[in-house]
Amino acid sequence: MVHGILPVCKLPGMSTYDVIRVFKEKTGFEGKVGHGGTLDVFASGVVYLLLGEATKWFDELLKLPKTYIAGVRLGVNSSTLDVEGSFESDLNPSRLEISDIKANLAKFKGEILQTVPAFSAAKHEGKPLYKLAREGIDIGKNRLITIYSLDIVSYKFPLVTLSVTCSSGTYIRQLTYDMFKSLNQKSFLYFLERAKVGTISVNQCIRIVDFALKWKKHLLDLNQVL
Question: In the annotation, is 40 catalytic?
Answer without folding.
Answer: yes
